[in-house]
Design a protein that fits this description.
The protein is an alpha+beta fold. The protein has 2 helices and 4 strands. A hairpin with a 3-residue loop joins β3 and β4. It is elongated and about 70 Å long. The relative contact order is 0.25.
Length: 78
């Protein structure tokens, strides 16, 4: 599973999604928080200030949901 960061900009009501904090901070330099601070933040709760809310979660794919079933592909040939 991949980590994902969800950025909500309060004034615009916009939502953006990023695969890294570096990408989030590069595209949004005026968030009122430094990347250094976000790197040290625990994210057990969302980060929030007067400008934005940043949440960290994981992105699920088909392979990470449910049981992986292996198909039997061998046949007994006589």
């Amino acid at each position: 599973m991949r980590k994902i960061f969800h950025l909500e900009i309060k004034s615009e009501g916009s939502h953006k999604y990023y695969g890294s904090l570096s990408a989030l901070c590069l595209e949004n330099p005026n968030l009122g928080v430094s990347k250094f601070t976000l790197d040290r933040f625990n994210f057990s709760e969302p980060f929030e200030n007067s400008i934005c809310i940043i949440r960290k979660s994981v992105m699920k794919s088909t392979g990470s949901v449910g049981e992986k079933k292996i198909k039997k592909t061998t046949t007994n040939v006589k």
